Amino acid sequence: MGGWMVESHAYIKLVPSSAKETVTTEDIKDLFLYFKEITAKTGSQVDWNYNEAAFPYEMKEMPDGKGKWFYLKSENDRYNIILLGVDKETAINEDESEQEQSYIQITLPESSTFGDKGKANEFCRFLAKKLQGELHLFNGRVMYFYPRK
Question: Are 56 and 79 in contact (CB under 8 A)?
Answer without folding.
Answer: yes
